[in-house]
UniProtKB/TrEMBL annotation:
Its main location: cytoplasm. This is Argininosuccinate lyase. Keywords: Amino-acid biosynthesis, Arginine biosynthesis, Cytoplasm, Lyase. Belongs to the lyase 1 family. Argininosuccinate lyase subfamily. It is found in: Cytoplasm. PANTHER family: ARGININOSUCCINATE LYASE. It catalyses: 2-(N(omega)-L-arginino)succinate = fumarate + L-arginine. GO terms for cellular component: cytosol. CDD domains: Argininosuccinate_lyase. GO terms for biological process: L-arginine biosynthetic process via ornithine. It comes from Buchnera aphidicola (Acyrthosiphon lactucae). Its EC number is 4.3.2.1. Gene3D superfamilies: Fumarase/aspartase (C-terminal domain), Fumarase/aspartase (Central domain), Fumarase/aspartase (N-terminal domain).
Length: 459
């Protein structure tokens, strides 16, 4: 029988039962539901609502259940319970009989589900933080190994100015650092306990909610029961953090796909994360990265979905809120999976140093240097920009790089250009000049690496 059978004369329609159940996805909250139930039983005992002895029996039965399901969580799916709360309660009653029916005193599934979900999110945030930090470490390692790999930096996917592979890696370290800070922020706001809020207006039993909250590792109990059972801000915030971080991973994927393309040829991806074509024997496709790029879409979809579910939803609990879970569970798994795959990609990538350098030399990416050179000789930047642009046009027509133009050719465009132009426009000089904070110069890159290593405790 359902938990609420008393008021009903007829059984639910089979079709409705199937439509209404959440067990097929909320079974993954089994551990959290048991943890919160044990904490609740202790609160009931402390407030003399059940005896200490009864509490011990309930707790050991719940712990037994926990051990049973830990390795066989999927077994839960064979039951036809309405949701994970009913499943835990039913199994408790199966173990200890009538006493099991006392556990739900003063509690509602409305405060239960959001407590379980918060506990689950908290665990997942800790796993995500570990994975993001591991990915950061791999970017730092790659930055250290590739400080001398010069490659073109792009704007509009056009070669713009030279950078190094290290510098590119460090850009992602920064993005991931913001992802970490966002996750920690979600955790800070999420970590309050809704348990003891009852259905919507608090519990009629005299319990100490603060003590209950800290027994589950929450910072405090929530302030308003009506809000507590209605609040899914933490789901929105977590999905929004997931969406931003997945957006970063999709940009990483796109960069790598391009670097690996026949056109760029800057890197070679490992066999470990690529696949072949069933028809074209020469192909080695960057599937892992294409999948990350695409999976970003489903995470963004889940964010939009929860926002739309919650929009205009009246207080307090509505069954609509059951729809918060599948998108969240899927997105967090997707995010964790993508982080692990990105780590694998980075660990095994081969950088083609010569080919990177050649592309940097070929793309007129030192044109800004000519302009800056002229500015130092007193020309206004706008005029210098124009002269440099004309020189690029000239070099294109001679099928040469800027470094290969004759001095006499340079001087047709400005008599201020002297022999020292050549050492001013080498790739190395382009890099070294950019030595103010955040620039690509070796000293700055080294600084960024040291700072990142200190932050992440890598020595
Ligand atoms: N399965 C429900 C959910 O996920 C649990 C809460 C049910 N509460 C209720 N009043 N029907 O939201």
């Amino acid at each position: 029988m359902a938990l609420w059978g008393g008021r009903f004369i007829n059984e639910s329609h089979e079709l409705f039962k199937k439509f209404n159940t959440s067990l097929s996805f909320d079974y993954i909250l089994a551990e959290e539901d048991i943890t919160a139930s044990i904490a609740w039983s202790k609160t009931l005992a402390k407030s003399n609502i059940i005896t200490k002895k009864e509490q011990i029996i309930i707790e050991s039965a719940l712990l037994e259940l926990l051990i049973e399901i830990r390795d066989n969580t999927q077994d839960i799916l064979t039951s036809n319970c309405e949701d994970i709360h009913s499943w835990v309660e039913e199994n408790l009653i199966n173990k200890i009989g009538e006493l099991g029916k006392k556990l739900h005193t003063g509690r509602s599934r409305n405060d239960q589900i959001t407590t379980d979900l918060k506990l689950w999110c908290r665990n997942q945030i800790n796993i995500l933080l570990k994975n993001i930090i591991e990915l950061q470490k791999n970017f730092i390692l790659s930055a250290e190994c590739n400080h001398d790999v010069i490659m073109p930096g792009y704007t509009h996917l056009q070669r713009a100015q030279p950078i190094t592979f290290s510098y590119w890696c460090l850009a992602y370290v920064e993005m991931l650092r913001r992802d970490v800070s966002r996750l920690k922020d979600v955790l800070k706001r999420l970590n309050t306990s809704p348990l003891g809020s009852g259905a919507l207006s608090g519990t009629a039993w005299k319990i100490n909610r603060e003590e209950l909250a800290s027994s589950m590792g929450f910072d405090s109990a929530t302030n308003n029961a009506l809000d507590s059972v209605s609040d899914r801000d933490y789901v929105v915030e977590l999905l929004s953090s997931a969406s931003i971080s997945m957006m970063h991973l999709s940009r990483f994927s796109e960069d790598i796909i391009f670097f690996n393309s026949g056109e760029a040829n800057f890197i070679e991806l490992s066999d470990l994360i690529t696949s072949g074509s069933s028809l074209m024997p020469q192909k080695k496709n960057p599937d892992a990265l294409e999948l990350i790029r695409a999976k970003c879409g489903r995470v963004h979809g889940s964010l939009i979905s929860i926002l739309v579910i919650l929009k205009s939803l009246p207080l307090s609990y509505n069954k609509d809120m059951q729809e918060d879970k599948e998108g969240l569970f899927d997105s967090i798994k997707t995010w964790n999976d993508c982080l692990c795959i990105a780590i694998l990609v980075l660990k095994n990538v081969k950088i083609k140093k010569q080919s990177c350098r050649k592309a940097a030399e070929e793309g007129y990416s030192n044109a800004t240097e000519i302009a800056d050179y002229l500015v130092k000789k007193g020309v206004s930047f706008r005029e210098a920009h124009n002269i440099s642009g004309q020189l690029v046009l000239r070099a294109i027509s001679e099928k040469k790089s800027l470094n290969d133009l004759e001095l006499s050719t340079f001087q047709i465009y400005s008599h201020l250009i002297k022999d020292d132009i050549y050492k001013n426009i080498t790739l190395e000089s382009c890099l070294e000049k950019r030595s103010s904070k955040g620039g690509v110069a070796a000293a700055q890159v080294y600084n960024q690496i040291i700072k990142a290593k200190k932050r992440l405790n890598i020595f």
